[in-house]
Amino acid sequence: MTKLCIDGMNLSLPYGTGIRTYAQNLLRNAAAADIGTQVLFGADIPHSANAIERAAILADPNSPAKPRTRADRLIRRATRAKTRWGRSAQIVSSADKVIWPGGSLPPAPVVWHASNIFSDANRHFRATRDLTKIDFNNDSIKPDIVHWTTPLPLYFSGGVNVCTLHDLIPLKAPYTTNHDRVIFSQLCKKVFDRVDRIVAISETSRIDAIELLGVPQDKIVVIYQSVSPPAEIMNRPEPCLQRDIEKQFNLEPNNYFLYFGAIEPKKNLLRTLEAALTSETNLTLVVVGRRGWSNDAESHFLSSLENQRTPRIRQLDYLTETQLASLVRCARATVFPSIYEGFGLPALESLTLGTPVLASNTPALMEVCGKAACYADPFDIASIREAFTRLSRDLTYCADLRAAGIIQAQKFSPEKYKRNLEKLYESLC
C-alpha cells in the first residue's frame, strides 16, 4: 500500500479555509482509494510534554501553552538553530487516545509531529532562500509520498514530493492580498523546481504557473477537487429544510441571497453590497464570513448598515457546517463576484446543493460553473446589480440554473477525484 503524508498546517487552524477544506478532501479521497494516509503537524509543543499531552495539544491547537522549563527553552533554541541542516518528524503514539474535534478520530491513522516546523522553515527561508529538509524517524511506516497542500519551504528528503498550487493571486492581483510578493514568488519557484509533480486545482492556475513562473508544462497537472456537503442536508426533505431555515434564521426559503467566505478585498464584498442595495429586489443578502485581512472598509460598511437596521443586509459571523449547508440549499442564489480566484470552492458547493450562483466572469469561476451561473463583471457595480435583479425576478431562469448546476457539479465528483489521485500517485511510485 502506498503511504501518503500531507502537511497539517491548515488542518490545525481553528476556523475553515479553502486549503483546510482541500486537505480534508484529499485525506478522505486518498483513504477511499486504499492509500495509507498520514498527517504532519507542527504545533508548538514543549519537549518535556509526554505522549498524551502531545496528542491533546494537537487535538486542540487553541489550548493554553504549557509552561516551559529551562530545558524546554534551551531545546527550543537549539531546534530552531538546526533547521538549516534539516529536521526529523516524530510519530505521535497516543493520537488515537484523545477525542478530536467533532468527536472523531485523528484526521489520519498515522500522525507525525515536528515542533514549530512550519514557522521555523518560514523563518529559515526568509533568511536564506533555502528550503528545509524533513525526514521521518520511523523507516517502517514513513511515507512514500509527501503531498504539500500549498507551497511551503520544506521538502521530504526520503521520497516523492508533490505540491498543490491553488492560485498565484499575490502576483496576479497583488492589491487583494497582504503577501510579500517577492518572497511568495521566490518560494513558489524554489518549491516547484524541487518537487516531483505540481497539482493545479484548475486549468486557470496551471496556465498562470506556466505564464508567470515558467513552470514546465509536463510537470504540472490539473486535478479538480470535489466537495462533500453533509449527507443529512443533501438528503433532508425540502419542507423540513425550509422549516429549519424559518425557525433558525427567520428567513423565507428561496427568497434571500447568500454570500459566504472570508471578508477580504479579493472577495469584492463592497461592490457586492452596493449592487445589492441599489438593485430592483427586496430580497435580503445574508453575509456569512470571518473577517480576513485589510477589511476595514467592508467592516465599517457592514457596521453602518447594522446601525441603520437595514433589513436588506443580514450578517452572521459563525455557523456550523450543517447550518451553512442548509442556508446554501435554501437560497435563491449564492453570490461570488470575486476579483480573482484559483478555483471557487463555495461556487462548487452551491452547485452540488442545487443552488444557482451569481459569479464573476473571471476564468476560474467560469471554469467551475460552466453554463450554470449568472455572470457579472466584478469591477462593474451595474453589472452585478443587473445580475441581482434578474435572479430575483426570473424564477424560470433560476430553475434552469439549478438544473444545469447539478449536471455541472458531476464533473467534480468524489469518484473522479479519487481516480485522478490514484493515477497521480501510481505514476510517481
Overview of the molecule:
The mean pLDDT is 90. With 429 residues, this protein is α/β, with parallel strands linked by helices. A ten-stranded mixed beta sheet has the order 7-5-3-4-2-1-6-8-9-10. A six-stranded parallel beta sheet has the order 13-12-11-14-15-16, with helices on both faces. The protein is globular. It starts with a strand and ends with a helix. Helix content is 42%, strand content 17%.
Summarize the structure.
The protein has 429 residues and is of the alpha/beta class.
Low-pLDDT stretches are none
Number of domains: 2
CATH architecture of the largest domain: 3-Layer(aba) Sandwich
Structural class: alpha/beta
How many strands? 16
CATH level-3 fold name of the largest domain:
Rossmann fold
Between the first and last Cα atoms, what is the distance in angstroms? 11 Å
Oligomer: single chain
Overall mean pLDDT: 90
How much β-strand is present in the residues? Answer: 15-25%
List the keywords:
six-stranded parallel β-sheet, Rossmann fold
SSE map:
Elements lengths: L2 E5 L10 H15 L3 E6 L9 H9 L10 H12 L5 E5 L18 E4 L3 H12 L3 E5 L8 E4 L5 E3 L3 E6 L3 H4 L8 H14 L2 E4 L2 H11 L6 E3 L8 H4 L3 H12 L6 E5 L8 H10 L5 E5 L7 H12 L5 E4 L4 H9 L3 E4 L8 H8 L4 E4 L2 H7 L3 E4 L4 H13 L1 H15 L4 H15 L1
Parallel strand pairs: 1-2, 1-6, 2-4, 3-5, 5-7, 6-8, 8-9, 9-10, 11-12, 11-14, 12-13, 14-15, 15-16
Antiparallel strand pairs: 3-4
Helix pairs in contact: 10-15, 13-16
